[in-house]
Amino acid sequence: MSEAVDSGFEESCGNVFLDLGFPPHEAIVMTLETDLFCHLQKFIERQGWTQERVAQEFCLTPGQALDLMRGNWKPFALKDLMLMAARLGWSIKLEMDEVPEEALQELVAKHVAPPPAKRRRSSRRAAIA
Questions:
Q1: Is residue 68 a contact partner of residue 58, using CB atoms and an 8 Å limit?
Q2: Three-state secondary structure readout of the chain
Q3: CA 92/CA 26 separation, integer angstroms
Q4: 8-state DSSP, 9
């Protein structure tokens, strides 16, 4: 007879950004950005492009090209990544599904941050000698 062991891990909801606590609207955009970024990065690796070639093909600065090649996706907005894909002749299709109101409310309830606690101002008084 075996007992269930609590591993301390929670099952994923299917979106890593939601699991990390990002609000649903941000998690959706971040997922699109990272998916497209990964496709671009894999393409660049398969082609064996240099930093100079990446900068030239995508009209990037050498630093931006290096970010792209090293996997730093944060400097790139979804629009930037879509423009890069378009320069390669790729077509991008976004699929949108309406989320049932009940499911949406549940997602929002899980990920709404509590209001920030009020901070007390420290009253530092200069000591008079």
A1: yes
A2: CCCCCCCCCCCCCCCHHHHCCCCHHHHHHHHHHHHHHHHHHHHHHHHCCCHHHHHHHHCCCHHHHHHHHHCCCCCCCHHHHHHHHHHCCCCCCCCCCCCCHHHHHHHHHHHCCCCCCCCCCCCCCCCCC
A3: 20
A4: P
DSSP state of 88: T
Residue-wise pLDDT tens digits, 66-116:
999 999 988 999 999 999 999 999 998 877 777 777 776 776 666 655 555
Q: Is the pLDDT of residue 127 over 50?
A: no
Asked whether the beta carbons of 18 and 24 are under 8 A apart, the reply is yes
The residue to which tokens 């979804």 are assigned: 78
Name the CATH topology of 16-91: 434 Repressor (Amino-terminal Domain) (1.10.260)
- The 3-state DSSP class for residue 30 equals helix
